[in-house]
Design a protein that fits this description.
The complex is a heterodimer. Chain A is of the alpha/beta class. Chain A has helices spanning 15-23, 43-62, 82-91, 93-96, 114-129, 144-157, 176-181, 198-208, 228-238, 243-258, and strands spanning 3-5, 26-32, 67-72, 101-108, 133-137, 166-168, 185-189, 213-216. Chain A has 10 helices and 8 strands. An 8-stranded parallel sheet of chain A has the order 1-2-3-4-5-6-7-8. Among the domains of chain B are: 11-43; 46-79. Classes of the chains: A alpha/beta, B mainly alpha.
């Protein structure tokens, strides 16, 4: 079965991971800009990073027949620094025309602070000015509920935002209702310890259906599994679900969301 | 035997137990061992830790008869205050609310 991983951080993975993902049926993936594990010291580092994920990673992926796309932003974990945010936002437009950039992401909130919200709104404004898709990061653990609530309310306040051009990621049982009721796409992140466990993700499909729903590995340098999407497919089969439903979630849905960007070519 | 259609798992209760009992047996023993380990700790210096308190409350929800235990426990482990913080207090989350 061909599949797409809509959220990966391949900058922190090995080339062997690309090879194994390709062998398991991965035909495309998208890499949101993320936190390096530490707060970066200058905007110049982001410039280099955006170059990296728009040139080096697409080539590494192409060597194994995988189409690599990406999203640009200053990650919410660094959103407390508005000066840095403004510097980075100033040069993001020069990257937006690159052939593999799908939009602005992953933007959102981390500890759910006033300055993080200011940074988030500035990113949404940039996305609207340049007619970009948006990929949203929702906060971790005890901050997820309040952060998702704040993000959804902020997006609803901006009349320019079209919900079907926004995917809100890292949803869990206590946040999925507010995301779906507002009409946004939902992302489930399949992690070994935090976010969404495999069988809970299958529960979500059974309870809410598959419309506007994507699953991803969000694999990075932390505990994460690059083959989480095919593992989800296996968990679905184990639960008695058929190939058509699985294919919709792991391929057709991400292709439909990404396909709103004319640069995205449906692979596989 | 009763049948349910809305949002149903395709498997019967019997099939769910046959397929998933062993891994959940293992998980509940892991939790029990974690609690025993806390009792055996060299120094008892975290009896009132906010994370331990949240887990105790979550375990109460686990043995209740709610049909939405997962969501209920997610909320027990969430910060009940939804306002924006004035400034960042720490970079990473703890897994349970401190207050």
């Amino acid at each position: 079965m061909n599949w797409i991983d809509p959220h990966v951080h391949m900058v922190s993975r090995t080339t062997t991971d690309y090879e194994q993902m390709a062998m398991a049926g991965c035909v495309a993936l998208s890499e949101p800009a993320f936190w390096a594990g530490y707060d970066r010291s200058s905007a110049a580092v982001f410039h280099d990073y955006f170059n990296h994920i728009t040139t080096f990673e697409p080539q590494r992926a192409a060597d194994y027949g995988i189409a690599h796309y990406c999203w640009l932003c200053l990650n919410p974990k660094e959103g407390e620094d508005m000066g840095l945010t403004r510097e980075v936002l100033a040069f993001i437009p020069e990257f937006l025309e690159r052939p593999t950039v799908l939009g602005i992401g992953e933007i959102g909130l981390n500890r759910v602070t006033k300055r993080e919200m200011e940074s988030f709104v500035a990113h949404v404004d940039l996305a609207m000015e340049h007619e970009q898709l948006i990929l949203i990061h929702t906060p971790h653990l005890e901050d997820k509920y309040k952060g998702t609530l704040q993000i959804v309310e902020a997006l609803k306040r901006d009349s320019r935002v079209t919900p079907d051009r926004v995917l809100i990621d890292h949803a869990e049982e206590h946040t999925i209702d507010m995301i779906r009721e507002a009409g946004f796409w939902t992302g489930l992140t399949l992690y070994p310890n935090t976010k969404m466990a495999m069988d809970r993700a299958v529960d979500i499909v059974e309870i809410y259906g598959s419309e506007r729903l994507c699953v991803n590995s969000a694999c990075d340098w932390g505990p994460s599994v690059p083959l989480a999407v095919p593992a989800f497919a296996m968990a679905m089969r184990r639960r008695g679900h058929g190939a058509e439903l699985i294919e919709q979630i792991v391929h057709a849905n991400p292709a439909a969301f990404f396909g709103q960007c004319p640069k995205f070519v449906i692979p596989g | 035997m009763t049948e349910s259609n809305d949002n149903a798992c395709p498997l019967s209760q019997r099939e769910i137990i046959d397929t998933y009992f062993m891994e959940n047996r293992s998980r509940i023993l892991d939790v029990a061992a974690f609690l025993d380990r806390l009792e055996r700790a060299r120094v008892k210096d975290a009896e009132d830790d906010f994370r331990f308190r949240a887990l105790r409350e979550a375990m109460q929800a686990l043995v209740g008869d709610s049909a939405t235990r997962t969501k209920d426990i997610q909320m027990i482990l969430s910060d009940p205050k939804t306002d924006l913080l004035d400034e960042r207090d720490q970079q990473s989350a703890d897994g349970a609310a401190r207050e």
